[in-house]
Amino acid sequence: MLKLIGACGCLALLPGTAWAQERAYCPDRPGIGTPACTTAPGRVSLEVGIGDWSVDSTADERQDVFVVGDALLRYGIADHAEVQLGWTMLGFARTRDHLTGAVDHRSGTGDVSVALRRNLVNPDGSGLSLAVMPYATLPVGREPFGDGDWSAGLKIPASYELSQAWSVVATTSFDAAVDEDGSGRHFVFDEVVGAQFKLSEAVSVTAEYEFTLDRDPASHHTENVGGLSLAWQPADDLQLDLGTNLALDHRARDAQVYLGVSRRF
Questions:
Q1: Are 244 and 256 in contact (CB under 8 A)?
Q2: Does the reported pTM lie above 0.85?
Q3: How many CB atoms are located within 10 Å of the residue 166 CB?
Q4: For residue 234, how many C-alpha atoms fall within 13 Å in the half-sphere facing its CB?
Q5: What's the CATH number where 196 sits?
Q6: How far is it, in rounded angstroms, from Cα 133 to Cα 212?
Q7: Which residues constitute the domain of residue 110?
Q8: Contact 120, 128 (CB under 8 A)
Q9: How many domains does the chain have?
Q10: For every one of its 265 residues, what pLDDT tens digit does the chain have, with 9 covering 90 and above?
Q11: Rounded CA gap, 260 and 47, in Å?
Q12: What distance lies between CA 113 and its chain's CA centroid?
């Protein structure tokens, strides 16, 4: 009986293993939006931001933030589904007051995020791919890397291959975000659209535009951001990336530059 159970177990695992090996690696990094593809069953993807620098300057102050180890762990639980766990390991912030010249330094960790991505069409990201992704953040970090309270939301990522080289991508998000004062939540709508071009089998470049409608009680406003990123996969289970995001209006963060690595196991 034990031998029979073991043999059946091996047979059940074989198709999943073969499919996992055949599915192309599709990391969340880089870029602003979220891909609709999911990790193959039983496979793990670890995606880490090696370095992330951003700057935001106003009439009163300038803030520089540097983050190391912005990690995302993804695990395929079914052919069309995966679970995710994210955490910002360490961040440094420098804020300079333009009027007094005073400089404030802070360091700390960020919040933890948990998510479930359920793909509805083509989990490998080919052709037309569509998914739904509910998520939540747990307030374990400290300002300016943590929000100070829990938040939740829903993302709807989609992609469509126009040809072997060109694809269009989009991510629609509805969020219950933490208020600026750290007490309560408010509605945020976010839309990301972009185009991806494959320079070769291993190299791709993505251009994106992001529009955000933020209904924070302290300041109702919109933000517009443009992004450009480059991804290189030197091996089937490895990707290196870099990118930059630039503000298209005065409300968005001025600039961001980042690079990272993704590895599938």
A1: yes
A2: yes
A3: 12
A4: 5
A5: 2.40.160.40
A6: 18
A7: 2-264
A8: no
A9: 1
A10: 333 333 333 333 344 333 444 789 999 999 999 999 999 999 999 999 999 999 999 989 999 999 999 999 999 999 999 999 999 999 999 999 988 999 999 999 999 999 999 999 999 999 999 999 999 999 998 777 888 899 999 999 999 999 999 999 999 999 999 998 888 999 999 999 999 999 999 999 999 999 999 999 988 999 999 999 999 999 999 999 999 999 999 999 999 999 999 999 9
A11: 7
A12: 11
For 26, the token pair is 């599709």
* In contact, 110 and 143? CB cutoff 8 Å: no
Amino acid at 179: D
